[in-house]
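Hi support team,

I'm opening this ticket because the web form for multi-chain structure prediction keeps timing out on my end. I have pasted the exact lines I submitted so you can reproduce it. The total is 318 residues across two entries, so I didn't expect it to be a heavy job. Is there a limit I'm missing, or should I split the entries? Thanks in advance, R.K.
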Amino acid sequence: MKISIVKAKSEQDIIDAYALIKELAIYENAPDAVTNPVSLFIEHGLGENPIYKLWLAKHENKTIGMALCFTAYSTWKGKMLYLDDLVVTEAYRRKGIGKLLLNALTLHAKNEAYKLIKWQVLDWNLPAISFYEKFDVTIDKEWYDCKLYEKDYDLFLSK
Amino acid sequence: MKISIVKAKSEQDIIDAYALIKELAIYENAPDAVTNPVSLFIEHGLGENPIYKLWLAKHENKTIGMALCFTAYSTWKGKMLYLDDLVVTEAYRRKGIGKLLLNALTLHAKNEAYKLIKWQVLDWNLPAISFYEKFDVTIDKEWYDCKLYEKDYDLFLSK
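Hello R.K., no limit was hit. The queue was backed up. Here is the completed structure from your submission:
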């Protein structure tokens, strides 16, 4: 099976990725959690200063996987590539396509002098955790995520 | 005590922030963990497309606190402001300066249409966790951090 990994370039590429994100949210019983509209998703990914970078896995011109990342920063380490989402459509899982996408990011990180690549995994996702451990990924279990949502900004400011 | 919160603008501002980062690393017994050189830290924070945004807390023209963040992206939520580091120098802690810095970020997030602000806290840092909970911050405990460091890129690619 010939899989190619390419950088997203067109509006259609981004629409394809959006469909994969939606598919995964439905699979996870959380379709309403995707509140980012496709119009903004397109705007943020194209143009002169895109907020994110997107790689796609394609098979016979069909988009069957994606990895989305952005440039993050660590005061201690410097420039960091942050992977927000990695999706492979259901029929194509367990064929090594996730690894091909991670390889593309790793090559990019190497060429662009990123000091590390960071992402997150759910604590119950044992297959993913053991996959990562097999590939020399460091797993840090001592951090909690803190999130202040838009709806709570005013309340936060008033306290 | 009159504290002003300002956006970092000059090389000296960034050098001041770097000193705070080093101070904290020494306090945490990890001075060698700061491998990001000050020269790169300056380069990444200034110019037309800085990687990070930096706010400083000043008292009588002395920099006594800092908050560093960058634009991140969530496929599900959209544009996100990610706070990497919040530091207040020791003599000025417990005076509400951290909250002033967080307020500046929150105002920025509100004005620039960020959907959320995200950061992390160590699981043993109970005072910080209860501080955040008091201010309507959502704490997610179910994620692990995964990190692939530069020294392991080639090994990862070879497997």
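A quick check on our side: The first strand of chain B starts at residue 3 and ends at 7. Let us know if the file doesn't open in your viewer.
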